[in-house]
Fold these 2 entries.
Entry 1:
Amino acid sequence: MLAALAVMPTAAATLPYDASADARADIRGALAQAQRTHRNVLVVFGANWCEDCRALDKALHAPRNAALMAKAFEVVKVDVGKFDRNLDVAADYGNAVAKGIPSAVVLSPAGTIVYATRAGELADARQMSETGVHDFFDRVVRSAPARR
């Protein structure tokens, strides 16, 4: 019993979305950093209960994808809970969650939307390979260069 309890904090710590995070403050911070680094901001909307969201997060941490993320983006993860949290934030950026999660919005360093998944492009992330995720975000990077 004690061994099972000892594992629980570790499992909780590995969940990708922080329900207590202030999404607007996190995005503001990422935009400020993007101004300095001349990278875009990638806002990923999702939830810990969502298998596709967890699969996407795992794929983004694979070495090749992590290198692409570090080179191209300031990344912010926004928890939408059970579609009862941060929906106002999603609405501010074109409501990319309307066709499912995970969803993503790319913002220029000035905060303008330069790309958004409006057709549920990532909603089946479990079916995407790490290479598929890389190719998807590589196309996004090429189509949405950072602008001030």
Entry 2:
Amino acid sequence: MEACPCGSGRDYAACCGQYISGEAKAPNAEALMRSRYTAYVKGAIDYIIATCDREGDEGIDVDATRRWSEKSTWLGLAIHRTEKGGPADSEGVVEFTATYILDGLREEHREIASFVKKDGTWLYSEGEVVPRTVVREGPKIGRNDPCPCGSGKKYKKCCGARA
């Protein structure tokens, strides 16, 4: 049994694997979102492309998408909220965060994704990236403040000179 990367706690084949392989269609917007994340983890870029709504598409850079998928170490998916997107709906929204490591840096991609259902198939329509605000954990050290390392020197002449 292989755990599904989407974080559902289910077996991959019984979860997202059935959608990525084409055995079944995602029954709702959240299931499609989870399967798209799993497709990035598995490098199944054809599935990513196939599950995009092509109306108004400005073009998908398939090579860049493939590189991002393959170069990233995927750490997890968190679903924050869903709106509509059920079997009886024709549209839905899923807010999520995908966490990964790329080029040695841990990244969090938070997005509010819109989905549409066309001819009984859920498709990713568009997404709005939620900007992340960086919050300083401690007070800002001024150039002329004493260095926090305890050397007795000014910050700019000590640890600040290395920064």
